[in-house]
Design goal:
Layout: E1 2-6, H1 13-25, E2 30-33, H2 44-54, E3 57-58, H3 62-67, H4 78-90, H5 93-101, E4 105-108, E5 111-114, H6 130-137, E6 144-147, E7 154-158, E8 164-166, E9 171-173, E10 179-183, E11 197-203, E12 208-214, H7 218-227, H8 232-240
Parallel strand pairs: 1-2, 2-3, 5-6, 6-10
Antiparallel strand pairs: 1-11, 4-5, 7-8, 7-10, 9-12, 11-12
The structure holds zinc ion (ZN).
Zinc ion is lined by residues 8, 10, 36, 61, 63, 149, 151.
């Protein structure tokens, strides 16, 4: 079974459309979504509808909870706060209801899905260090756990003896007895220095995983951001990938 894992779309429908094309080329069987469909960008409703129609499994992110009023957006930086408020104004009731229905964490087919971390999903705490990763391995049982949130792709493994290490590169084949904690990066606002939309594809039968990139015309998204009166820095960062 070929599963695409996508995260952090952030209302960027141009990036999402490019990802959709790549998914068609790869003939994926299912799409799982790791949270933050809205926030930052100009198309919250279109992106939410796409997830509603195409994701077989999905969880909520902190920006999703921001738009439906379930997380205190005072902790967001000023640009993120402004965008969440604007996003909430654009969204219809069915999008709001759908976002409200999403769980913090879920699992299926030996895959756990959570936006920030499996240890305490509602804390929205980031997994930054190898130590953070190691403690989080105790909080899921599946072979694979996929997260987003930092917008930076990274693969961490724990072998059968409990040794934790970063897997170099952007692809691997699972080893017997090992488990994997994987950040799939961001579709709509990558922060690893390249502007291309970022996500992952897992093929469960051989156990191969790859980070995949889709080029898209971020100039269109930038124009929409400016036209909506959203902060210019949110447009600029799409070109810089940060
Ligand atoms: Zn995000």
């Amino acid at each position: 079974m070929k599963i695409a894992i996508i995260s952090d779309i952030h209302s960027n429908i141009e990036a999402l459309s490019a990802v959709e094309e790549t998914l068609d080329q790869h003939n994926v069987d299912a799409t799982y979504f790791a949270g933050d469909v809205v926030g930052y960008g100009p198309d919250p409703d279109g992106c939410t509808r796409w997830i509603m129609e195409n994701a077989q499994l999905a969880v909520a992110g902190n920006h999703d909870h921001g738009v439906v009023g379930r997380t205190d957006i005072d902790s967001f930086n000023v640009n993120a706060r402004e965008a969440v408020t604007w996003n909430a104004e654009q969204m219809n009731d069915s999008s709001m209801e759908y976002i409200n229905s999403l769980p913090y964490m879920t699992s299926k087919n030996d895959v756990t899905l959570v936006h920030a971390n499996p240890k305490l999903p509602e804390s929205w705490d980031y997994i930054f260090t190898l130590w953070d990763a190691e403690t989080n391995f105790l909080h899921f049982e599946s072979t694979y756990c996929f997260v987003g949130h930092s917008h930076q792709p990274v693969i961490v493994s724990m072998d059968k003896d409990g040794n934790v290490a970063v897997v170099p590169g952007d692809t691997f084949t699972a080893e017997k007895g090992s488990r994997y904690l994987i950040n799939v990066g961001s579709v709509g606002q990558p922060r690893d220095g390249t502007p291309d939309a970022c996500f992952g594809i897992l093929d469960t039968s051989p156990g191969t995983f790859s980070i995949v990139r889709s080029e898209y015309d971020f100039g269109i998204t930038q124009e929409k951001i400016l036209k909506a009166g959203l902060p210019k820095s949110l447009a600029d960062r799409l070109a810089e990938g940060k």
